Structure formats: C-alpha cells, structure tokens
Amino acid sequence: MQWNKNLRFATCILSVVMILSLPPGCKKSDGPVPAMAIPDSVTDIDGNVYHPVKIGIQVWLIENLRTTHYRNGDPIPEVPATSRWGRSDSGACCNYNNMMQNSLIYGKLYNWPAVHDQRNLCPAGWHVPDENEWATLVSFAGGETTAGGRLKEFGFSHWLAPNTAATNETGFTALPAGYRNDTGVFANMNRSAIFWSTTSYDPSHAWYHYTYYDYQVMFKDFYHNKAHGFSVRCIINE
User: Fold this and answer.
1) CA dist., res. 110 & res. 108, Å (int)
2) 144 neighbors 166 (Cβ within 8 angstroms)
3) How far is Cα 182 from Cα 67, in angstroms, rounded to an integer?
4) Dist CA 37 CA 195 (whole Å)
5) Which residues make beta-bridge pairs with 50?
6) Cα dihedral across residues 98, 102, 106, 108: positive or negative
7) Please, are residues 204 and 226 in contact by the beta-carbon 8 Å criterion?
C-alpha cells in the first residue's frame, strides 16, 4: 500500500513538472493561432521578406505587399502607362509614380481583380483579408473612431504632420502609400493608407479600409471602383 501511495505521488509530481516545462506555444492560447505557428519572417514568390505581428486573435504582415507574381508563379502585369491603367478587367499592379524605390518602402498598388484572383497574391499560408477579418482587426483596435491612430505607423518618417493620434500600439504599422485612381492618376502618398478587402460590394465596387494623416478614424467604404490601385496586407490562414 505504501509503495502504491509513493508511486501515485511521484506520478503527480512528474505531471506537474511536465506541464511547467512545456514551451510557450503549447500552453493555452488567447486565439486560434498558436504562438509556435507564427514564423519570424515570411517570403513571397519574388523573394521579398515580410514580418508577422499578432494582433488580438489574428496575425498580419506589417509590410504592404510588393510581389509581381501570383503564388503559382504567373506574373501580375505591371501597368505604368496612365492611358492603360483602369482599362482592363484583369489583375494589374504598379509602383506609386512608377518609381521602384516607392514600392520598396510602401509596397505596390494593386487593382481589385488582382486581389480577388484565385491564384492568390499572398505568400503560401497567407491571404488577402475579407470584410469579416477587417472588422475583427478594427474592433480590436478600438472601433472605427480610434482604430486609425492605433494602426498607423508612429511619427513623421513617412506620414505628414500631424499624423493624428498615431501610436501604432497594435504593431500593424500602416504606411501612407497613397493610391492610383481609375484614370491612372497617382495621389495622396504620405497622406493616406488604403487597403483592399476581398469582399465585393457590387459588380463595379469592392470594400476597402483607409485612414488619413489628419484623422484617427479607420474608415470603411466602397465608393471607388475596382480599377483603383490600393495597398494590400496579408493575414495568416487559420
């Protein structure tokens, strides 16, 4: 009997030690993405390197996408000509003001057909977010009225002053890449960050989210048509 008691006691002690020695990723998670599943960096098909950040129950990349190929290797046509941008129903991308150095900092601008293409813009294991995923992010950042400030990069390295309420406390690091309209004109670099959603509003429009240098709001709209060029952020697959 004494031997059995000692055995049970030893077994309990061993169980406690094993639980305490588990690596962090094996302990209870506060969301659907285990800590061990989050890589230190992610590389797209072009070799561009991005860095993940966990925001609430989600994991996002903190850089804007800048690939020129879909995940399967097919090219995404780069369209520098003003006269050609906005005339195609197929996917397209460009650099702001057609200057490569802009894409190195701010990423490329993509039209919505490229965003919605089944070949996928994002690296393997990642995707362009839909409206439900954007809503989760904005809610975690305090709701539309304050989320812009909590998602924007802090300071004036890229944003114009006053960069209202920018704290980047989420780590999302929204950058003011501006946009390209459906006639091919570039606008608002250093003033606005505009991100596509994969959710369509109607045949000509899709949802997108944006914030400005002089607002703390994270706006949601569908006013601009699918031929516009906006930034793209990727979110991890659950």
Assistant:
1) 6
2) no
3) 21
4) 25
5) 42
6) positive
7) yes
Convert 180-230 into a string of H (helix), E (strand) and C (coil): ECCCCCEECCCCEEEEEEEEEEECCEEEEEEEECCCCCCEEECCCECCCEE
Residues 64 and 48 sit within 8 Å (Cβ to Cβ): no
pTM metric for this prediction: 0.85
- pLDDT by residue, tens only, the chain of 238 residues: 433 434 343 333 333 333 333 333 333 334 555 555 789 999 999 999 999 999 999 999 999 999 999 999 999 999 999 999 998 789 999 999 999 999 999 999 999 999 999 999 999 999 999 999 999 999 999 999 999 999 999 999 999 999 999 999 999 999 999 999 999 999 999 999 999 999 999 999 999 999 999 999 999 999 999 999 999 999 999 8
As given in the structure block, the two tokens for residue 22 are 């588990």
Structure tokens belonging to residue 58: 């989600």
Question: Which sequence spans correspond to the domains of the chain?
Answer: 29-236
Separation in Å, CA 85 to CA 27, 117, 128, 183 = 50, 18, 22, 6
